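ARCHIVE CARD
Drawer: 12
Card no.: 0347
Subject: one protein chain, sequence and derived structure
Cross-reference: see card 0346
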Amino acid sequence: MNKMKLIIAVLSILTINFSNGQTISILKDKIEKILIDKNATVGVSIAGISPDDTISINGDKQLPMQSVYKYHLALTVLREVDKGIWGLNDTIEITKEHLDNSLWSVIRKKIPDGGILKLSEVIKYTVANSDNVGCDLLFDMIGGPIIAQNYMHETGISEVAIRDKEAMLQSDWKLQYRNWTTANAANKTLKLFYENKENQLSAKSHKFLWEIMKKSWFGKISMKTYLPENVIIAHKTGHSGKNDEGITGAQNDIGIIFLPNGGYFYLSILISDSTEESKVNKKIIADIAKLSYDYFKDKNE
């Protein structure tokens, strides 16, 4: 009788594992069907709590980040805060010279003639609103984009290159391709600093950053489009716009999607060299997010 119970238990475990493997394979198949007729290079990385719940489609392909790198920049700035070099309440002077450009900026709208902002405010505008003026100011404060790149490499995130400020990226289309990461590396970076197992961030900085990421701006079509209204997502987008040939260099979204039962999963989608309309690129992101959410929600119920 005991042997029979043992056999049944083993078979049950094998059946569950087989079923989960089938399900994640089906999810991957569904995502690949979305991508098959799209004229774009798309990197997708999905990772749940279980090592079995992992999908990589072009996950190691180097693709331009655009404003996604503002997440990496914020991590680098907060490292300096945790060292005591700066404080989140430190004030920063924003001059007319900082604002005298065509870069996208909420800061410019807030203080068109210049003014004083706290460091915490500059980080919030840079990450949550993708403010390019704030971004370049923060890059100058840490000593340039290469400092953010080097910090990522120090933490073990080798598949990332951060070389140029926003002012340079906006002036030369080709430069975005040397500011790249991979979908798998983006997920790894999210996981490393969210789970914070090696205390990369202080408790205060960790709370500060992830509250910002949860308030980060969403476009008209995004990861959240087809998800329940109350779903929380901590994420960062990046978008190049189109060039004269109608090519989108980057339409990206990386983030953590939280489940009703308190679980979560990581999702990074990098779309590059797309001749599709912007609404199609955005729908790719929304569709993949919905399929992934449904899979993890059903699995964790």
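Annotation on reverse: The chain has a mean pLDDT of 92. The two ends are 32 Å apart (CA to CA).
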